[in-house]
Amino acid sequence: MIELAGLTKRYGDKVAVNNLTFTVRPGIVTGFLGPNGAGKSTTMRMMLGLDRPTAGDVRIDGRHYDQLRDPLKYIGALLDAKAVHGGRSAFNHLLCLAQSNGIPRARVHEVLDTVGLTAVARKKAKGFSLGMGQRLGIAGALLGDPQILMFDEPVNGLDPEGIHWIRNLMKSLAAQGRTVFVSSHLMSEMALTADHLVVIGQGRLLADTSMADFIAQNSRSYVRIRTPQEDRLAEVLRQNGMTVVHNGSGTLEVDGGKSERIGELAARHEVVLHELSPQQASLEEAFMQLTAESVEYHAHSEAPPEQPPQGWGQSWRKEG
């Protein structure tokens, strides 16, 4: 378990993390979300004792990170897959980590096999692709067989097979009762992996809730209907307290009613349905809605290029 209480980090006048309090619990995958500059990396660094908090406290299973003997046996982390001595082989990199934490040499072979790097175990890390580097970083996190795991952008550089593998790995670790904390900007993948979400913006806590509740609370849910009897059904639904929007071509959007209830009403009034489907926003849409006011770096689309003066093309062809 990871417990944060009033965690704060200032750099001069800049408040990177502002009074964060939340708990990362075992048995589920907890996603850590926020716009660029929200303070996610700083928070994770403070969890691992790499940055000292200005105020507040963070504990790993009730203790500060620097109080843990052989910390890789308590918490494994992937924060930066590039943080590897390029002149060392994958095996020797992991062996150094193992020896520093009293981990048996045999465990190095096990994690290399787990992440699929056994065939390149003796190759130098500087020749690894981005995806191979990620796998090596994940092997390092798994090395001590810890009960707590932290991953920052774990799918970065992985191919589809690798993404599927790490997704199932994190779910499997959580199913074993471990604490799994993962930060990612890849919303589609987070939606498939995380059970619970912690969302921050400008260093402040914005949400600490289940995935389902987060989407429900930060997006509009409605039922989409297609019917050749649009006006008749709309009137029936309004009479039953629902809000109906006509989208044309026989399509309705209905708020305030579940699809089962709508189907029953349609059947009772002998209305033909061609489609009856509940609609809910994606995690990305809900995230954008919640964090709209917390985005620090806004990009703007470039203006379309100016069109040449009318007739310019014709005169150019004549001269050419």
Automatic annotation (TrEMBL):
User: What are the ABC transporter domain coordinates in residue numbering?
Assistant: 2-227
Instruction: Note whether Signal occurs among the keywords.
Output: no
Q: Does the keyword ATP-binding apply?
A: yes
Any single GO molecular-function term of the entry would be: ATP binding
Q: Which UniProt keywords apply?
A: ATP-binding, Nucleotide-binding, Transport
Residues of the region (Disordered) are 297-320
Tell me the InterPro entries matching this sequence.
AAA+_ATPase, ABC_transporter-like_ATP-bd, P-loop_NTPase
> What's the superkingdom here?
Bacteria
Gene3D superfamilies, sorted: P-loop containing nucleotide triphosphate hydrolases (3.40.50.300)
Q: Which PANTHER family is this protein grouped with?
A: ABC TRANSPORTER, ATP-BINDING PROTEIN (PTHR43335:SF4)
Q: Which family does it belong to?
A: Belongs to the ABC transporter superfamily.
- Give the protein's recorded name: ABC transporter ATP-binding protein
Q: Which organism is it from?
A: Streptomyces fuscus
